[in-house]
Amino acid sequence: MLDVQKIRKDFPILNRTVNGKPLIYFDNAATSQTPQQVIDVIVDYYSNYNANIHRGVHSLSQEATDAYEQARIKIQKHFNAKHSYEIIYTAGTTHSINLVANGFSSLLKKGDEIIVSALEHHSNIVPWQMLCERTGATLRVIPMNENGELILSDYDALLNEHTKLVFVNHISNALGTINPIESIIEKAHAVGAAVLVDGAQSCPHLKPDVQALDVDFYVCSAHKICGPTGVGMLYGKEEWLIKLPPYQGGGEMIAEVSFAKTTYAGLPHKFEAGTPNICGGIAFGAALDYMNGIGFENIAAYENELLAYGTEQLQKIEGLKIYGTAKEKTSVISFNVGTIHPYDIGTILDKMGIAVRTGHHCAQPIMDFYKIPGTIRASFMFYNTKEEIDAFIVALKKAIMMLS
Amino acid sequence: MTIEEVQNEIIEEFAMFEDWEERYQYMIDLGKDLPLIEEKYKTDDNIIKGCQSKVWVHANMQDDKINFTADSDAIITKGIIAILIRAFSNQHPKDILEANTDFIDKIGLKEHLSPTRANGLVSMIKQLKLYAIAYQTQLN
Ligand SMILES: Cc1ncc(COP(=O)(O)O)c(C=O)c1O
Q1: Which CATH number fits the domain A39-293, given the four candidates 3.40.640.10, 3.40.50.1860, 1.10.287.3510, 3.30.530.20?
Q2: What pLDDT score was predicted for residue B113?
Q3: Residue A362 contacts B where some CB pair is shorter than 8 Å
Q4: Are residues B28 and A343, on separate chains, in Cβ contact within 8 Å?
Q5: Which of A19, A341, A349, A358 to mutate to test the interface with B (most CBs of B within 10 A)?
Q6: What span, in angstroms and rounded, lies between the C-alpha atoms of A356 and A24?
Q7: Does the pTM of the predicted model rise above 0.90?
Q8: What percent of chain A has pLDDT over 90?
């Protein structure tokens, strides 16, 4: 069991007020809040051992390097990667995806096919479109049904010997659908295609085991799992990371340089050009420690309760429609009320101290599917409470009254 | 009335309200009375960028004065644009160009003035002034 009142004390931001009201933060799918334990690690780094890594002989550099590499091992253990060098530090999910998409430029040719799902974050569709433009490969899309679930029979029909790569998110940010990635991966492998899973939305709620999944690439951002912004990771199977050419040139990623030829460093440094987000990497490790301290089973059980409670309370409101009713989903509720514009409701809720997301959630194709301009999205994390949901419902009713 | 006089009138109206609720309720009511744009002008060209909601604005000139009509799919946005249009409509292009928009702050809607705010009030003001520039050039 999880003691939410005790947990809430870890998050200083939850004490603040917004527009004179206690903050109710329901925009966790955009970014999560940071516990004191992680903030302390960041302060400690800059107060005590800030130095560049991997290059100094002096003590500070050594301490920073050790902490950074220790954090990599934490990440490796968390995701159960076989080797720590299969964990590449990046600036976040978007950067990780671009790194892989770029690497595939040299592995694809005209006639090859890439499959993406209809549930993607639209900024993540762009790297694949660019890759197709560069290589002449074709982009195919797995469609979704009215509940916001991928239609797997259509996926089967898209797979063939030309399929080289499948890209799918583990959990949809707009609707919260948990995609059946186990079977998506297995079927892709059966035709010899690699699979990249976007774990930006899954990592806050569950603990993926990349070896058990047999996934080729898995990516996420630290800021969605109680860590800082601007840092994330790419897990890649060793064989794939060897095959992919480096993404950016610079210091740290080379073994030897001459004007005639440069040899690249081994993994993971081949993909880590320049001075990285050292403090961010260390804090990423601390964030995983924090979440593992609470336990992902406890987190999932508690968040499922919040999801069930929130869904039940929202459904009592006349004219309210929930988008994304997949059987398997996380604590994300996307909805609209009658013909009221999501922006209007979001604005009034903000006046009452409640932070929700409104708009298309970077998932324009999903909004087009439902023929709506956007939704209001409330997303819960383990530090939210049923009392907050109650306050949210009261505020929502008031907003509806004002706007009708 | 001059733009400044209209603005002062709006400031006085909003000064009667005690809290944000009454202010927003009034703004929503103003939105319902917005001088609506004719359907034929609701084209993609007339959409103001930078808004989470859609906003269309159209302007025409009569007797050297500009009149604005508009619409939005969000009611609060409609209210904001109704306030702006009330201040700027039936005015000479030159006066519109010279007008300042401090009154938005004074009626307690300062938060909407942030250029990063998704409602695009700043883009709306810019668009109204662009119309004024265009008509001013015609007059010269
Ligand atoms: C499913 C999904 N993919 C990718 C991203 C982008 O993550 P980042 O902005 O941290 O690169 C997000 C963030 O909203 C997301 O929800």
Answers
A1: 3.40.640.10
A2: 64
A3: no
A4: no
A5: A341
A6: 9
A7: yes
A8: 89
